[in-house]
Write a structure and sequence with these properties.
Layout: H1 2-10, H2 14-17, E1 26-30, H3 34-40, H4 45-66, E2 70-77, H5 85-108, E3 111-116, H6 124-136, E4 143-151, H7 153-169, H8 180-185, E5 197-200, E6 219-222, H9 232-243, H10 253-256
Helix pairs in contact: 3-4, 4-5, 5-6
Bound molecules: 3-methylbut-3-enyl trihydrogen diphosphate (2 copies) and magnesium ion (MG).
Length: 257
Amino acid sequence: MVANLANVFFKVTLKEQIHIDTLPEHIAIIMDGNGRWAKQKGMMRAFGHENGTKAVRDAVEAAAELGVKYLTLYAFSTENWNRPKLEVQTLMKLLVSSLKKEISTLQENNIRLSTIGNVDALPQKAKKELLEVINKTKDNDRMVLTLALSYGSREEMTYAIKEISLKVKNNIISPENIDESVIIKHLYTQNLPDVDLLVRTSGEQRISNFLLWQIAYAELYFTKVLWPDFTKNHLYEAILNYQQRERRFGKTSEQIK
Ligand code: IPE
Ligand code: IPE
Ligand code: MG
């Protein structure tokens, strides 16, 4: 109550209300609603995707400025390959142009780019641009920005099982030594911590094959805002909501306090 009054009188911004010591270490976002945003404006879906890139920049900047260590963005799913060919082409072109445009922002903000998903499935041009930016930003250490591209959690797990099976077959691992850490080491996300906060825009309340293993204990946050309308303040709201929750990881509330 006192805090609320203070907020009213001194106009404390959303950003200032965030507790830096309990920031989520890893935020993942399902950026959804570009198509509906465009449709509302009587425009083609591509227009929504183009306008979604501004929201990407805002979210990346906001997370880095706060001190979030890992931000993972769902940009293209394995299922998205089934969209009309023209839309897929538009998305791939947009990926290339955004990477070209944003490399300087990444460098200025000391952000390292990484990717999860089947990069080999991407068009040659997109893959080349992506690997180039990943290489150029590899020494940056303020935040890791991971783009999920041609990513599907089930494909990721299938791939991991294949890899582990091969190692068992070749006597590199014995089955009794397979534990969670072995599985984690074979996922695309081997270098990322578990997700703390998962945000999905556009009002849909589903996971759509995103990071199924890694969100086991993530806090889920759904907002009706369509992705192109998503601003820094929306991210702050999600983080503030996260900070009001009690993460128990199976324990009792008393054990946590
Ligand atoms: C998210 O917006 C972008 C991608 C999935 C690539 P959508 O394109 O899914 O937009 P809606 O859900 O149709 O509104
Ligand atoms: C999830 O959005 C994938 C991305 C945001 C990249 P979709 O729009 O593809 O998800 P569904 O099909 O509505 O569940
Ligand atoms: Mg969608």
